[in-house]
Amino acid sequence: MNYGSLIFLGVFATFVASWWGMVFAPQLQIGSQQPKAPEGVSVAYPSVRPGIAAQGRQIYVSQGCVYCHSQQVRQEGYTFEVLFLGTTNQQATATALDKLGIKGGAQLIAAANETSPQLILTNVSLQQASAAETALKESGANASRVFIPTGADMSRGWGLRQSVAQDYLQEYPVQIGNSRLGPDLTNIGARRPDAAWHLNHLYNSRIEVKGSIMPAYQYLFDKRKIGRAPSPDALKLPPEFAPPAGYEIVPKPEALTLVAYLQSLQTTTPLFEAPMTQMPQSAPAGDTNAPSATNAPATNTPSK
Amino acid sequence: MNKDVTNNFDAEPKVSGGQAYLPLWLTGLLGLLLYWGCNYIDKHGSGFNQYVYSPYGDTNQLGSFVIGGDEDYALGRAKYAQICMPCHQESGMGVPNQFPPLAGSEWVNAVGASRLIHLTQNGLSGPIKVKGTDWNLVMPPMGATLTDKELAAVLTYIRSTWGNKAPKVTPEQVKTVRAALGGNTDPQTVEILQKIPDTE
């Protein structure tokens, strides 16, 4: 018997099925997405990167940052919080807080006002949050519910919401990455707005993050003799990393454009498909993906 | 070894396996799995909608989350984008030498909102000092077309964004100022505004 045609058909069907599932169906589903202005904003998102950041993107690609850094934040769930912002009727609000099972009502009422909101409920469902909000508002209090996306990536402070297809419309090739030897960079521009931090970190990441395993990208910088006056661009380095006296470290254009690109990496725009609460976000105390000091490799201190 | 077989080694082996039927219980089980799978996709797939990502269920659910956590904030941001942003910019920084910044402005961050309500309701003409810089441009009465709630929301928005931390503005405050102005639609000047107490 000759099975050739049967085997061919089987293989063909397998390829057609995977092409259908991985190429054609996604194309039908999200292939028509265009940059759009989110609700209440007149600027389309995502916008084209400014030229210097677009150049920095080429540096990002050529330096292979993608091999250790991902650009995708994942979300596992969501939850609500309720903020209490003061009241006009203390007695009624105290009763309402009591009914909601919140202890320390008197202190809360004393402490809460519009500029110092008190967190009274965390990790509740939309129904619970709305019910609490309504009950408090009926008692003459000012309360509001806050939407909080949750997940391991959010707890690490890597983003306030998950990444969705809309975020990548201006990216080609997409630098999503599949390894997280370093932290996710989706929102690094918002987490670390300071260019000086990034320059120091590129020059030697141990300056800014103790125990970091990132290679030192010192060839993106020039070590040169200080002329008549120090360059205003020169890095301000701590003594143990500083060049010998009379020398300064100045970033090359590659380093400056790369930093501009890193600063442009921000997903701080809420989208319909990825809601989030805009909050003033302060940089975390230490980078959360740095390994513990015990397994830190030998420091890559430059020869001086 | 049979002599016939060794002579025909390049022929395909003649295999006849007879016939075997798929057991009925397996057919039933696979049918049930298919039924459950289809139902599961129907329930969780949200019709393959491009705007629904896990962990969200469907577009109605997404619509019920107020972006920004607060309806007034969302309304204020929408009105800001529509009315104020062309001049004062998305960043609230204005345009150097043309439109003064709102971010960090002492006029925006005043404890009382009365001056701001007067300014947006009737417009402003003449020189004004903001963040140590002199500005001189006519601002049209941008707030006059808004409802009490909308003007309060947009003022609350500019007073709580870009690092500004001033108290909220309520629709009642806007109503009071509008009642006090009566039919007066004259553009405000800094001299008029400074007669209004800073804390009102």
Q: Would you write up a description of this structure?
A:
The complex is a heterodimer of chains A (304) and B (200). Chain A has helices at residues 4-30, 51-62, 90-99, 105-111, 126-138, 152-155, 188-191, 195-203, 253-264; strands at 77-87, 118-124, 141-150, 221-225, 247-251. Chain A is α+β, with helices and mostly antiparallel strands and 304 residues long. A three-stranded antiparallel sheet of chain A has the order 2-1-3. Chain A starts with a helix and ends in a 40-residue tail after the last helix. Mean pLDDT of chain A is 85; it is low at 280-304. Chain B is 44% helix and 4% strand. Chain B is built from eight helices and two strands, in the order αααααββααα. Chain B has helices at 3-7, 24-44, 59-64, 71-88, 114-122, 148-160, 171-181, 190-195; strands at 127-130, 133-136. A two-stranded antiparallel sheet of chain B has the order 1-2. In chain B, a hairpin with a 2-residue loop joins β1 (127-130) and β2 (133-136). The longest helix of chain B has 21 residues, at 24-44. Chain B starts with a helix and ends in a 5-residue tail after the last helix. The chains are: A alpha+beta (304), B mainly alpha (200).
Quick one: biggest sheet of chain B? Answer: 2 strands, antiparallel
Strand content of chain B: under 5%
| Structure summary, number of beta strands of chain A | 5
Mean pLDDT of chain A comes to 85
Largest interface: A-B, 34 and 30 residues
What is the count of helical runs of chain A? Answer: 9
Total helices of chain B: the number is 8
The overall average pLDDT of chain B, rounded, is 81
Distance between the termini of chain A: 76 Å
Total count of strands of chain B:
2
| H and E string of chain A | HHEHHEHEHHHEEH
Q: Categorize the overall geometry of chain B.
A: elongated
Compute the CA-based radius of gyration of chain A.
Answer: 26 Å
The profile of the biggest β sheet of chain A is: 3 strands, antiparallel
The strand order across the widest sheet of chain B is: 1-2
Query: Low-confidence parts of chain A lasting 5 or more residues at pLDDT below 50?
Result: 280-304
